[in-house]
Amino acid sequence: MHHGLALDLAHLPQLLKCVQDQATSFLDRVAERPVVPLAQPPQEVPLPERGVGARGGMRDFVERWEPALSASAGPRYLGFVTGGVTPAALAGDWLTAVADQNVMSSADDTGQRLEHETIAWLRELFGLTREHQGTFVSGATMSNTVGLAIGREWVGERLGVSVAEAGVAALGPVRVLSGSPHSSVPKGLSMLGLGREALASVPTLPGREAVDPMALEAALAQSDTPCIVVANAGTVNTGDFDDLRAVAALRGRYDFWLHVDAAFGAFAALSPAEAHLVEGLDLADSVCVDLHKWLNVPYDSAVQFTRRRDLQARVFQNAAAYLGPLGDVPDCVHLTPENSRRLRALAAWFTLRAYGREGYREIVERCIACARSLAASLEQIPELRLLAPARLNVVCFTLADDPTPARLAGLARELADQAFLTPTVYDGVPALRAAFSNWRTTDADVLTVIEALRAKFAATTAGPGSS
User: Fold this and answer.
1) What is the mean pLDDT of residues 141-157?
2) CA angle 219, 203, 205 (to 5 degrees)
3) How many CB atoms sit inside 10 A of residue 6's CB?
4) What is the pLDDT at residue 463?
5) Could you state a single Gene Ontology molecular function term (predicted)?
6) Phi/psi of residue 204, nearest 5 degrees
7) What are the beta bridge partners of residue 429?
8) What average pLDDT is seen over the chain?
9) Which pTM was predicted?
10) What percent of the chain has pLDDT over 70?
11) What confidence category does residue 134 fall into, taking pLDDT thresholds of 50, 70 and 90?
């Protein structure tokens, strides 16, 4: 054994204690450190011929790289829709690395069984029935892509061909209809050979990102072959929701696969006051939920549900002498593009076991309350304009005057110490958005953001030289 490996193995308890101390120090300060440091990352260096051991690597990381890392695990990282990592999820993730399980085969199936239990808990959390079978994937992009791949196979089944066997050329053009699709949808269509041009934009309701059901019906009436509809449960700009029951009801008259992108919106099911937003989610043929958002588990983790596991296995089956047969309950290796992956379910299992439905209801409702508090406060700042109501956990706003991308990017940079906001364009207007999904975020963080905005505009109004 290499002497460096042997030395680190002999001192493993001390090494892990060093990692624990560093992790604790980082997390203790995560709420106070600049949310997005302005410091530039260090220059890259060549691969060393001789290593410095794990402790030396730790010193180098702490000195060179850690100061430039963002506080993305903290309470005011409001860009994208980003969760943190609950204490229980962190414990589960550490143990995931310790056990280092590949959960793809029933030849060594304890990890798969733990995943099945976790999937059942998640299914119950989101109000889905047992008809929906689930699988862990890396994130919303892969979850959407897997759902679209199953939908593609379903279209082939309706037309009497198997795309998995004959290829996409045997299928012909497929229409994919959506009101406000996430960018991962055209990306997935590109990977699946259906092409970005297959995606047809359907008009949305006035002043909304939610699809107009009448416009969707008109688009479906123009299709003489089966198609795919992508509905949204939580859009990225404004957290808007399609009327899932109304969309699903159209299947009584039109032939389509219904995929619902509920990357973060599925969590509305936990709040009695907001659960109506996801009524009809169980009617979908496939569902995307991203777990490193509101479940607050580490990257990368998401889940994909479908009613047609048989079609899923047809698409992703992997035949090799060392793998088990498909069987009635396919191994994970037959359900996603991956042939191997870590036990992603353990972090989710840990945090669900630790905090239960009640704990996650509190996180969800607190984040919603924070979003609405920020929205209400923004309306009291004359220099800013709210572009949509805070329907769930996303706040979309802009400058009241001359909202150019450059000015908004400048505003975001000025706020970087206190909060991270991401740019967007909503209804043709450049804007900023704040998304609340971190388990640490409280009213105090909203107040910090509002005070930073007020101070910025007060300074602008006062101008140079004023007293």
Assistant:
1) 98
2) 125
3) 10
4) 59
5) pyridoxal phosphate binding
6) -100, 170
7) 426
8) 95
9) 0.95
10) 98
11) very high
Question: Cα(367)–Cα(390) distance, rounded to whole angstroms?
Answer: 11
| CA distance linking residue 47 with residue 294, whole number of Å | 38
Number of helices (H), then strands (E), belonging to the chain: the values are: 14, 11
| CA nearest to 255, candidates 311, 168, 177, 147 | 177
Residue 70 reports pLDDT greater than 50: yes
Rounded Cα–Cα distance for residues 357 and 434 (Å):
25
Residue 280: pLDDT above 80? yes
Strands, sheet with 429-435, edge to edge from the N-terminal-most edge strand: 384-386, 394-399, 429-435, 422-426
| Three-class secondary structure of residue 286 per DSSP | strand
Record: fold of 89-350: Aspartate Aminotransferase; domain 2 (3.40.640)
Helix (H) or strand (E) holding 466: none
Residues whose CB falls within 8 Å of the CB of residue 389, separated by 6 or more in sequence, listed in order: 238, 375
100: left (phi over 0), alpha (psi -120 to 50) or beta: left
Complete DSSP assignment for 25-91: HHHHHTTTS-SS--SPPPPP-PPPSS--HHHHHHHHIIIIIGGG---TTSTTB-STT-----HHHHH
Per the CB < 8 A criterion, the answer to whether 222 and 256 are in contact is: no
DSSP structure string for 347-407: HHHHHHHHHHHHHHHHHHHHHHHHHHHHHHHHTT-TTEEE-S---SSEEEEEESS---HHH
Q: What is the pLDDT of residue 461?
A: 64
Closest CA to 291 of 228, 218, 223, 349: 349
For residue 466, pLDDT beyond 50: no
With 90 as the cut, is the pLDDT of residue 348 above it?
yes
Name every residue whose Cβ is closer than 8 Å to that of residue 239 and which is 6 or more positions away in sequence: 265, 371, 390, 391, 392, 393, 394, 435
